[in-house]
Write a structure and sequence with these properties.
The complex is a heterodimer of chains A (354) and B (382). Helices cover 30% and strands 25% of the residues of chain A. By secondary structure, chain A is of the alpha/beta class. In chain A, strands 1, 4, 5, 6, 7, 8, 11, 12, 13 and 14 form a 10-stranded mixed sheet that branches. A 3-stranded mixed sheet of chain A has the order 3-2-15. In chain A, helix 2 crosses helix 3 and helix 5 crosses helix 6. Chain B has 382 residues and is an alpha/beta fold. Chain B folds into 2 domains: 138 residues, Peroxisomal Thiolase, Chain A, domain 1, CATH 3.40.47; 235 residues, 3-Layer(aba) Sandwich (Peroxisomal Thiolase, Chain A, domain 1). Helices cover 36% and strands 18% of the residues of chain B. Chain B has 14 helices and 12 strands. A 10-stranded mixed sheet of chain B has the order 3-2-4-7-1-8-12-11-9-10, with helices on both faces. Chain B has a two-stranded antiparallel ribbon with strand order 5-6. The longest helix of chain B is centred in the first third of the chain and has 16 residues. The chains are: A alpha/beta (354), B alpha/beta (382). At the A-B interface, loops of A face loops of B.
Chain lengths: 354, 382
């Protein structure tokens, strides 16, 4: 898909909570073999503090994105939050974030849900709104405190984090633009959480070939075909990263070398931040990319769907990098906790009170 | 009794099929088998299957599959003997023809497991054990086999690496088999370093969970020659059972049911073990492969790992064991496995097995349900 007028990224921001738990610690608690998580290529994951949630982390990432965009928050006319861990089942997260950032009230806003690709849908919607001239700037937030049943293999990777982007018309204060996008969605029930269920269910190997790989490959190939591009035309490839292994494998299937994937691969250090997963990876790449370079971004959401974007970096990006904490800085700023603190922080244990 | 021949076979690849259900898998194999005999009408259907009831909530498989495969309103029913359902189905189908009641009988085996999480599949498979005296206490099927493996290694002083020759050879054979689920080679080091499932059983000692369907067409002597240029005779078969509750067994390093079933089959076929060119045996876990060869009289007790290390049972030897890759690497679609084995031996004797090709004129297939609880041994002759 190509909009009538090109839309670009004015600012980007990530947020990764300070706490980390080592996968070894999780495996030890539940009796997994010590080497079990090595197959997932994840060594530790980020843990949100007891007073953090999708809203607070989304706000943190948005603040960083707005700082890089160098705009008055009042100039933003739409805010979308993609999440699958809304603090309230009914009551928007977006209103809290937008109000706390001083963006309300004359705005569009909604929480979107499509597993890990809801924020990507927000990117597509924003491109349309901006290109049509209905709004000037949009704020897209992907934020999750991902849930996993204690003891489930998912617990090695389900983590917390957020990414946010300020989008605007190309060359109107932007430092990269969307060359095109391609979406691919089917009814593939690989991962779900029913109403009132505390933790998601997943279809084990079904989450791989028929879900992740089929959709990622279809979206990426579809995009390259529509734009007449080949893997060699891209300098970076950022894939949805439920673990460290899948993005490398899908990259190999598509013909992308490890060198193009590694700069945007953050899951091995922080786990799968769901709606933040590919988007924090994109933040990391924007912080090292040079004008003229081309980035492939492919977020994925279970259920299932994937969107592929070709993003071209433009002048002025380097001076924005240090206007907010970089992903590299956020990755290095960490404090390890044991399973007990992790369980307390994530509400797996709670104090009984009268 | 009427002599019985295998005149047609059909197999699906063993694997995890997210786009094919039980009936589609069966029909795919059935159509291949029917193609081999030139669209001859099948007069009855016997289906081996274990978990359609516990996993798929589907009973009445005979009618379902006869209908779906377009076989008409023929007699059809399911035979269940846990992982030995396939062998038991062939055994049943044999007597339908041998009795003189039918000239052409289809024997199928089909299993569909991959729609379900591993813990659900493991529970369904554990139902092969004694529900009240074993399953109730939480032991899984892997757990029972781990007891056997530990005892085998202790009694015969076999090391971890010496045991690993079995899965290494099975994977090597499976690479050439287009129907196999795990078509890659492994090393002893990889086996030793793979995840522990139930100590001392590791991941690479274990057969994988998989779907698949295999179909045979059995025919009476009267019509066999008309349906196939190379009919393969079911020359002998034997079946026996043992205490399902393992604690009642006097010796768990030999499955008495295998010994009894093999004796009946060899006697009926008038064949000595030394004459067997190719054998497909039930190696759901490494230790079972070694033990079964010993119980079938094809190897010396406690010495099989050493003999295999020296090259016995490899392609070219007599017998060649599991040229398909065995349950370990061809895969183990439970109730279909016993039918796969017979189909593979038939193709070996016909000379058209698409993988490791052995040749020869006598083959053996052994199918086990439970921990050596229900065993069928079938001897085929060209």
């Amino acid at each position: 898909m190509k909009p009538i007028r090109d839309v670009g990224i004015a600012g980007w921001g990530a947020y990764i909570p300070k706490f980390r738990i080592k996968c070894f610690e999780i495996g030890k608690t539940w009796g997994f073999p010590p080497e079990y998580h090595n197959g997932l290529i994840v060594s530790e994951k980020a843990v949100a503090n007891i007073d953090e949630d999708t809203i607070t982390m989304g706000w943190e990432a948005s603040k960083n994105a707005i700082a890089r965009a160098k705009i008055n928050p009042k100039e933003i006319e739409a805010v979308y939050v993609g999440t699958e861990s809304k603090p309230y089942a009914v009551k928007p997260s977006v209103t809290v974030i937008a109000e706390a950032l001083g963006i309300t009230p004359k705005i569009l806003g909604a929480d979107l849900e499509f597993a890990c690709r809801a924020a990507s849908e927000a990117l597509e919607a924003s491109i349309g709104l901006i290109s049509s001239g209905m709004i000037r700037y949009s704020l897209v937030v992907g934020s999750d405190t991902a849930q996993a049943s204690p003891g489930d293999v998912l617990e090695f990777t389900a983590s917390s984090g957020a990414a946010a982007f300020v989008l605007g018309l190309r060359r109107n204060n932007t430092i990269a633009y969307f060359e095109g996008s391609y979406s691919y969605i089917t009814d593939t029930p690989d991962f779900w959480r029913r109403q009132l269920a505390p933790y998601p269910m997943h279809g084990e190997q079904f989450t791989g070939d028929p879900a992740y790989f089929a959709h990622m490959v279809a979206a990426a190939k579809g995009l390259m075909e529509e734009l007449g591009l080949r893997p060699s035309d891209f300098d970076y490839a950022v894939f949805h990263q439920p673990n460290g292994r899948f993005p490398l494998k899908v990259g190999a299937k598509l013909g992308f070398s490890k060198e193009k994937i590694m700069p945007g691969l953050v899951t091995p250090m922080i786990g799968n931040t769901y709606n933040g997963s590919a988007l924090i990876g994109l933040c990391a790449v924007l912080e090292v990319a040079k004008p003229g370079q081309r980035i492939l971004l492919v977020p994925f959401g279970s259920g299932a769907g994937a969107d592929a974007y070709s993003i071209i970096v433009e002048d002025g990006i380097e001076e924005r990098v240090h206007l907010a904490p970089t992903v590299k800085e956020l990755l290095e700023d960490k404090v390890y906790v044991d399973y007990t603190y992790y369980a307390k922080f994530r509400g797996l244990i709670s104090k009984f009170s009268f | 009794m009427v002599k019985v021949y295998v005149v047609g076979v059909g197999l699906t690849k063993v694997g995890r099929f997210f786009n094919k259900g039980l009936r589609e898998l069966f029909a795919e194999a059935a159509m291949k088998a029917i193609d081999e005999v030139g669209n001859e009408s099948v007069q009855a259907l016997v289906v081996g299957n274990m978990t359609s009831s516990s996993l798929g909530e589907q009973d009445n498989l005979g009618a379902l599959l006869a209908d779906y495969a377009g076989l008409g309103k023929i007699p059809a029913f399911k035979v269940e003997a846990a992982c030995g359902s396939g062998g038991a189905a062939v055994y049943t189908g044999y007597f339908l023809v041998a009795s003189g009641m039918f000239d052409v009988v289809m024997v199928g085996g089909v299993e569909k497991q991959t729609e379900y999480p591993t813990r659900i599949v493991s529970k369904a498979l554990a139902q092969a054990a004694d529900a009240e005296y074993e399953l109730f206490h939480g032991i899984s099927f892997t757990g029972l086999n781990a007891l056997v493996m530990r005892m085998y290694m202790n009694k015969y002083s076999v090391s971890r690496d010496e045991m690993s020759i079995w899965p290494v050879l099975m994977h090597k054979n499976a690479v050439k088999n287009p129907y196999a689920q795990l078509r890659f080679e492994i090393t002893k080091k990889q086996v030793a370093e793979s995840m522990i499932i139930a100590d001392p059983i590791r991941l690479l000692d274990s057969s994988p969970i998989g779907d698949g369907a295999a179909v045979l067409i059995l025919a009476s002597e009267r019509v066999a020659k008309k349906l196939s240029d190379t009919p393969i005779e079911v020359a002998g078969l034997g079946m026996a059972t043992d205490h399902i509750y393992v604690a009642y067994r006097e010796n768990i390093l030999s499955f008495e049911a295998t010994v009894l079933a093999a004796r009946k089959a060899y006697n009926m076929a008038k064949v000595e073990p030394e004459k067997v060119n190719v054998a497909e045996v039930h190696d759901a876990f490494t230790v079972l492969g070694f033990m079964n060869l010993e119980d079938l009289g094809l190897s010396k007790r406690g010495e099989t790992p050493k003999l295999m290390e020296e090259g016995r049972f490899w392609p070219g030897d007599k017998p060649t064991v599991n040229p398909s890759g065995g349950l370990k690497a061809r895969g183990h679609p439970v109730g279909a496995t016993g039918v796969y084995q017979v189909a593979e031996v038939v193709m070996q004797l016909r000379g058209d097995f698409p993988g490791v090709n052995v040749g020869g004129d006598i083959g053996l297939a052994q199918s086990i349900g439970g921990l050596g609880t229900t065993v069928t041994v079938i001897i085929l002759k060209r």
